[in-house]
Amino acid sequence: MTSQPRYFWEDFGVGSVREFGAHTLGRDEIVRFASEFDPQPFHLDEEAGRQSLFGGLAASGWHTCALVMRMMCDEYLLDSSSLGSPGLEQLKWQKPVLVGDTLHVRMTVTDARPMTSKPHIGLVRTRWEALNQRDEVVLVMEGWNMFRRRDVPAP
Amino acid sequence: MTSQPRYFWEDFGVGSVREFGAHTLGRDEIVRFASEFDPQPFHLDEEAGRQSLFGGLAASGWHTCALVMRMMCDEYLLDSSSLGSPGLEQLKWQKPVLVGDTLHVRMTVTDARPMTSKPHIGLVRTRWEALNQRDEVVLVMEGWNMFRRRDVPAP
């Protein structure tokens, strides 16, 4: 991209909360993801799902993570100065995600600081929660993202 | 499955190490995953990848996680009494995964205990590392899995 992104490090204020996204999971996409990456019976077969702790055909936890990532991309990441992420400090699959569930994301900025070694880059610590149509939190992730800064040009 | 699985909680001894898997990432699968779940330019386009911190067209971190999951499934999970996972305590994307890299997994059992509330289920704490063809660790995950026990039948 040659144009300037809309969001830089300075735009992720500590304490800010943002809710976004809406994705309803169909049976076919759950089975397709699981067939490729996580072919455990409770992610492939309705009867196996019902007999599992999940109580129904359940999306792979990695599928849920990937869908949250897509909602993050569409909401802000693709129009930002993001440089990627070094990782997460926690990832909790709190409730099953079943066929027909509609997920959205609640994002809370919990910390932010410039990088010591590269002051034109800032770190943002974020908690992302995925919620279903009953506003139950199904997934919690906390971790860091790197963004270029608007106010400190690259050397 | 009506037959007994091969691996139960008792088979994951603390300190045991196991290496397995071999997956070479092609350009097309990197772009296909990223197009659906993580369409940031450095995951879609070679030139954007070269200009990024990754230094080349890089797989989405979630793609790497999903591939590790698949290698875990093929190595032991599908023939085990696994009941799923409550989550991870850490997830580090330590190095970029680029087109042509071949990944495998090193799994180390770091802790194990029966569940207090459900003694027929055991928890296993594991560190999974994904390594590339130069034996560089590209991904580290640590977390818990639940398995039924061989020696304590369900009530």
In words, what does this structure look like?
- 2 copies of one chain form a homodimer.
- Helix content of chain A is 23%, strand content 36%.
- Chain A has 155 residues and is of the alpha+beta class.
- Chain A has one domain (13-148): Roll (Thiol Ester Dehydrase, Chain A), CATH 3.10.129.10.
- Chain A binds chain B through residues 1, 33, 36-42, 52-54, 60-62, 65-67, 69-70, 73, 77-78, 82-94, 140, 143, 146, and chain B through 1, 36-42, 52-54, 60-62, 65-67, 69-70, 73, 77-78, 82-94, 140, 143, 146.
Provide a quick synopsis of the model:
Chains A, B: InterPro entries: HotDog_dom_sf (IPR029069), MaoC-like_dom (IPR002539), MCH/BMMD (IPR052342). The structure is a homodimer of 155-residue chains. Chain A is an alpha+beta fold and 155 residues long.
Features:
155 residues; 5 strands; 4 helices; alpha+beta; homodimer; 5-stranded antiparallel beta sheet; Thiol Ester Dehydrase, Chain A
- Gross CATH architecture of chain A: Roll
- Termini Cα gap of chain A: 20 Å
Strand order of the largest sheet of chain A: 1-3-4-5-2
Low-confidence stretches of chain A: none
Rg of chain A (CA only): 18 Å
What is the residue-averaged pLDDT of chain A? 96
Q: Could you say how many structural domains of chain A there are in total?
A: 1
Output the helix-strand order of chain A.
Answer: EHHHHEEEE
Secondary-structure-derived class of chain A: alpha+beta
The major β-sheet of chain A equals:
5 strands, antiparallel
What is the third-level CATH name, the topology of chain A?
A: Thiol Ester Dehydrase, Chain A
Quaternary status: homodimer
Instruction: Report the sheet-strand fraction of chain A.
Output: 35-45%
Give the proportion of residues in helices of chain A: 10-25%
CATH superfamily of chain A: Hotdog Thioesterase
Coarse morphology of chain A: elongated
Give the largest chain-chain interface (CB within 8 Å): A-B, 39 and 38 residues
Q: Specify the number of helices of chain A.
A: 4
